[in-house]
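Quick one before lunch.
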Amino acid sequence: EPWALEATDLRKTFATGRAGLRRTKVSAVDGVSLRLRAGESLGIVGESGCGKSTLARMLVGLESPDSGNIQIAGRPIGDNRRELSRHVQMVFQDPYTSLDPRMTVQELISEPLTVHRIGTAAERRDRVAELLRLVGLSPEMMARYPHQFSGGQRQRIGIARALALEPRVLICDEPVSALDVSVQAQVVNLLRDLQRRMGIALVFIAHDLSVVRHIADRTAVMYLGRLAETGDTADVFDSPAHPYTQALLSASPVVDPTRRRRLADRIVLAGDPPNPTNPPSGCRFHTRCHIAVAECATTQPQMLSVGGGWAAACHLAQREPADSSTS
Ligand code: SF4
Ligand code: MG
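Model of the iron/sulfur cluster complex:
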């Protein structure tokens, strides 16, 4: 069984303007590799500007990588956007701007089917009714327009539209951060439920760690365009191996207080991330790392295995001692 999604060494740089005679560039994503099985969910976390959204846009074909490649179910996608859209769909952050206000719900949800010439008009209408029920909305709502719905309902419409083609992979970029807190959990639970029932590979991008802990089987932590740590969500959240993950979790209330004792001290993440047009040499985290050594400023750390399917890009990352892995 091939990986549902396999992204290898993706890189993306944007030109941002000029500083005197020099063109300035941002290395938004710098060598990120990810693999995901059908029915598995991967959370991607990191501060804003870490490259999460650029990564998401490459995975769904809205940006093409400068280098690296993406395979869906073992097949390279290359530049075939149409083929990619058949298998990889996206749920966007803002349900207020991502749905065309001039289209009815029926038109919005059936558009991907129309574009791919799937079914007759009557069959598409039936499919829209089925999709509306799937996301917890009434099929009677299909003649209405987006402005007649709440934010949570609009995001359900966005999810129905993204599922219309039965994609293998669903990319969700901060899908609940624009919603009222009171409806966030409902939408997250809906996504998790649909993902499991339909066997979709889900990539869930969020800055809210508690949401990722809830929905993701595995978690990837990004810092300034690179992966800091990847592993099973329970491992990453309960005993983070990378100092940046430790700092992120230490700053957030999601860690179980009995586990938090395992961190030597409460780690304060000082300041904002450095300017991505001029990222630090060596380990990009070294300017904020509380345990940096001289090597960190000169040598980029590679991903080191710290356990089964668990890795961290840190010169000082160590395999978990055998005695604590059983506790
Ligand atoms: Fe900190 Fe060095 Fe590890 Fe980077 S490589 S996280 S600077 S200890
Ligand atoms: Mg973003």
